[in-house]
């Protein structure tokens, strides 16, 4: 996999490069600010861009804005945003422009090296990965109209869908059969009012509904 | 106290700003009245007080005398009250009494209140001065008026006198129209000069009594309050800058290092996959500790200033808080553009505290947050449909936040009658 890293801390850039090297990923470029990220991707589009939310010069949300622009200009490039903070606002902003090849993870998830590399690969292959901490925070909202009608198990399944896991992966996690998970997923779609015709997007739409935003 | 430049409200103001106009104005006449009134008022006071004092001393053993003595002591109060009215002859500025209002109605309360006041005794001490100056005023005024009238009426006097003085030399002078006219003209000059002199004298005296008998305006004090308020606002401002700097330093320094440490531990864990179980356990523990440390640091930093507030402003941050609230929150936000950092922070933390209190104490089923910026003021209102009975004291953090808001020149109002609903209202000036 070809990866571009945009991270202002040299320490973290090196750490990320080292972790990526474990599965023979190629670091196409490792840059320190949003400008460099955009020009690097334009010059040599990677499979995934790994972007820190805060980048120079303002150290605010330059990285997030760059990621949103990247998605417009280069929709084929997967984006995994890394953040020091759990910000559901940022996660939902990303999900509003994209419903595939997208991730939002806390920085310390990188420490779970193998899980992190899995997540990166899921993003590269079109999946959506949202940090469990973000998901948990959104779960704490009590009244979320249709989502409220879900059973506890269905909610659990939906949370894992939001993390970008496949039915098989969810089944292994919950120690149930894949058919059982498929049944839960079907129920979730039903309760959220997602028509079968939307098959391709239903998973993402369910996640979006779950995140509390109106589906586009 | 500001003077209206177009029409000075005092004799002195007119004299200084526009001496030419003075003669045509009513000020010289009012000054004359002021000066002439002093003596009769002083005499009345003198006679009344001396009588009260005299009879009071004689009848003191009877008790009635004590009352009369108290009246004598309070006579200064009455005279000062009259003088504060007399002041209006030479200026139209307010002349508030320096006395306190008694705490309760009733003659006895009033009496004891007055007798304990310094102002009462100062007024009594001023009374003799008032009388003495009244005498001087009267003499001066009468002298000048006589001089002017005397000079101006020279032709009239000549007409009358020529019938009585048959002496030829006198007749010559009295019939000399030229010198009579000159005397009259001198009279006009004297009139003008007297007008200035009387006005200046009256103004001077009024200034003296104003200083002695009128409650000083809080000019100096309010200037000092403004100064303190500004300095407090500067401190809050500096505090806010410092908070944001701390947050940035923590984020760029410690947090990044911890994240890097977690990565390294993660890699070390991978290297040890086939290693001894004890080492693997230790690495797992180190990993866990490092993550918990980062999590704690993160919570700490969020308490300083949440990144979404710093990055996106109040509207985004309030939306974020509302979405995380356990009680569903209806939002009505109209906050275009960014507000000054201290205002954003203060308002944000008030909303956090308000919603936390709603969740903790109100038993509400819904809450609403409305915020708008209009006319240079940020207004935030947090309502709930709970049981009410909340108090700022019980609100804990609200007291500190009220101080913070007050330092910005704003205010917090909490209305929470038993049975609800509760409304927390915040106003903060935020520039235009």
Describe this structure in words.
The complex is a heterodimer of chains A (216) and B (432). Chain A is an alpha/beta fold and 216 residues long. Chain A has two domains: 2-131, Rossmann fold (3-Layer(aba) Sandwich); 141-210, Orthogonal Bundle (Arc Repressor Mutant, subunit A). Chain A contains eleven helices and six strands. In chain A, strands 2-1-3-4-5-6 form a six-stranded parallel sheet, sandwiched between helices. In chain A, α2 (34-43) packs parallel to α3 (62-73), α3 packs parallel to α4 (88-97) and α9 packs across α10 (178-192). Chain B is built from 15 helices and five strands. Chain B is elongated and about 150 Å long. Chain B has helices at 11-17, 19-22, 27-59, 64-86, 107-115, 118-152, 154-161, 168-175, 177-213, 219-271, 277-304, 307-312, 314-324, 341-362, 397-407; strands spanning 329-334, 367-374, 377-384, 411-415, 422-429. The two termini of chain B are 29 Å apart. The chains are: A alpha/beta (216), B alpha+beta (432). The A-B interface holds A 8-9, 11-12, 15-16, 18-19, 22, 53-54, 59-61, 84-90, 107-108, 110-114, 116, 137-138, 140-143, 212 and B 248, 251-252, 255-260, 262-267, 269-270, 287, 290-291, 294-295, 298, 301-302, 306-308, 310-312, 316, 319-320, 323-328.
Short description:
Chain A has 216 residues and is α/β, with parallel strands linked by helices.
């Amino acid at each position: 996999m070809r990866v571009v890293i945009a991270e202002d801390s040299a320490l973290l850039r090196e750490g990320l490069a080292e972790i990526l090297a474990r599965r023979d990923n190629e670091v196409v470029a490792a840059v320190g600010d949003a400008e460099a990220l955009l020009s690097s991707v334009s010059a040599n589009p990677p499979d995934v861009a790994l972007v820190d939310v805060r980048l120079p010069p303002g150290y605010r949300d330059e990285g997030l804005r760059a990621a949103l622009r990247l998605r417009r200009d280069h929709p084929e490039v997967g984006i995994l945003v890394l953040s020091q903070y759990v910000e559901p606002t940022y996660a939902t902003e990303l999900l509003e422009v994209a419903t595939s090849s997208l991730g939002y993870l806390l920085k310390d998830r990188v420490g779970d090296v193998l899980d992190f590399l899995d997540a990166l690969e899921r993003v590269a292959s079109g999946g959506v990965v949202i940090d469990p901490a973000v998901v948990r925070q959104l779960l704490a909202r009590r009244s979320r109209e249709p989502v409220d009608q879900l059973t506890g198990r269905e909610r659990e399944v939906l949370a894992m869908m939001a993390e970008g896991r496949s039915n098989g992966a969810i089944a292994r996690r919950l120690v149930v059969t894949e058919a059982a998970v498929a049944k839960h997923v079907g129920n979730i779609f039903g309760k959220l009012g997602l028509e079968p015709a939307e098959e391709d997007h239903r998973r993402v739409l369910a996640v979006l509904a779950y995140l509390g935003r109106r589906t586009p | 106290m500001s003077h209206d430049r177009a029409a000075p409200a005092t004799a002195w103001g007119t004299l200084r700003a526009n001496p030419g106009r003075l003669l045509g104005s009513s000020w010289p006449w009012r000054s004359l009245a002021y000066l002439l009134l002093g003596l009769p008022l002083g005499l009345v006071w003198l006679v009344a007080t001396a009588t009260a004092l005299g009879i009071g001393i004689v009848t003191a053993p009877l008790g009635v005398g004590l009352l009369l003595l108290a009246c004598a002591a309070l006579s200064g109060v009455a005279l000062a009250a009259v003088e504060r009215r007399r002041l209006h002859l030479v200026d139209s500025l307010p002349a508030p009494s320096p006395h306190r209002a008694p705490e309760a109605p009733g003659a006895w309360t009033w009496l004891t209140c007055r007798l304990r006041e310094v102002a009462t005794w100062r007024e009594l001490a001023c009374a003799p001065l008032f009388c003495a100056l009244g005498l001087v005023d009267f003499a001066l005024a009468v002298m000048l008026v006589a001089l002017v009238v005397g000079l101006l009426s020279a032709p009239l006097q000549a007409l009358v006198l020529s019938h009585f003085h048959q002496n030829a030399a006198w007749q010559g002078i009295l019939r000399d129209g030229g010198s009579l006219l000159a005397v009259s003209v001198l009279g006009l000059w004297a009139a003008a000069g007297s007008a200035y002199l009387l006005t200046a004298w009256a103004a001077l005296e009024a200034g003296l009594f104003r200083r002695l008998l009128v409650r000083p305006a809080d000019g100096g004090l309010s200037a000092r309050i403004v100064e303190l308020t500004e300095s407090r606002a500067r401190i809050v401002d500096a505090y806010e800058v410092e908070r944001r700097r701390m947050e940035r330093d923590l984020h760029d320094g410690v947090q990044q290092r911890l994240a890097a440490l977690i990565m390294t531990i993660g890699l070390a864990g991978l290297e040890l996959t086939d290693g001894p179980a004890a080492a693997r356990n230790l690495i797992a523990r180190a990993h866990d500790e490092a993550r918990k440390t980062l999590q704690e640091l993160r919570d700490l930093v969020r308490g300083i200033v949440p990144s979404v507030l710093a990055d996106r402003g109040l509207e985004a941050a309030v939306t974020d808080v509302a979405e995380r609230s356990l009680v569903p929150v209806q939002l009505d936000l109209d906050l275009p553009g960014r507000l000054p950092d201290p205002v954003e922070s203060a308002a944000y933390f008030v909303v956090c505290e308000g919603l936390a209190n709603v969740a903790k104490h109100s038993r509400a089923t819904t809450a609403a947050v409305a915020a708008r910026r209009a006319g240079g003021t940020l207004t935030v209102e947090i309502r709930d449909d709970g049981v009410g009975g909340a108090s700022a004291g019980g609100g804990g953090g609200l007291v500190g936040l009220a101080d913070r808001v007050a330092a910005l020149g704003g205010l917090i109002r909490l209305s929470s009658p038993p049975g609800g609903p509760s409304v927390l209202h915040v106003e903060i000036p935020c520039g235009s």
